Amino acid sequence: MPVYTLTVNGEERVVDAPADMPLLYVLRDLLGITGPKYGCGVGICGACTSHIGNNVARPCIVPVQSIGAQPVTTIEGLANGGVLHPVQQAWIDEDVAQCGFCQPGQIMTAVRLLEQHSNPTDAQIDAAMSENVCRCGTYVRIRAAIKRAAAASGSR
After folding, report:
1. Low-confidence ranges of the chain (pLDDT < 70)
2. What domain range is 19 assigned to?
3. What DSSP letter does each residue of the chain carry, written as one string?
4. Cα–Cα dist 148/87, whole Å
5. Most CB atoms within 10 A, among 85, 116, 124, 155?
6. Which pLDDT does position 33 carry in this prediction?
7. Residues 69, 17: one domain?
8. Can you give the residue ranges of the 2Fe-2S ferredoxin-type domain (predicted)?
9. What is the Cα 22 distance to its own chain's centre?
């Protein structure tokens, strides 16, 4: 089996995995990183959403062999020294989660949105978040949390 050296959440990790093994399985099963959730397995629901390099990605459909030297960030990698990322804090403040299953993917998508648009409009939020499914329907609170995080980030 091939050996891969991955940078995950700022830490170099070495794994033995089949080349075509989806990154999600590497993260969850081989590295014990369980924030990204298995939802659909075909890249549609967004529960596994993570960052690969500068891109939002669905690790359930990304083979480990395609990662190369790109860093991988999961929800576990957002907090800095125990301080929650502004998006994570906004999610708590807005009481977004109901079941919570989709929230890691929602948060990772929102983080990238705010990196691209520091004060997004409702239309930008809706467009960016449209491919992340929340079965509980907390979309109004998700939008409110993104606006709260944008305001908190802007005041720094």
Report:
1. 155-156
2. 3-77
3. --EEEEEETTEEEEEE--TTSBHHHIIIIIS---SSPPSSSSSSS-TT-EEETTEEE-TTSSBGGG-TT--EE-GGGTSBTTBPPHHHHHHHHTT--SS-TTHHHHHHHHHHHHHH-SS--HHHHHHHHTTS--TT--HHHHHHHHHHHHHHHHT-
4. 8
5. 85
6. 98
7. yes
8. 2-78
9. 16
Say what percent of the chain tops pLDDT 70: 99
CA distance 115 to 86: 12
Which among 37, 56, 77 is the end of a domain? 77
pLDDT tens digits along 26-61: 999 999 999 999 999 999 999 999 999 999 999 999
CATH at 58:
3.10.20.30
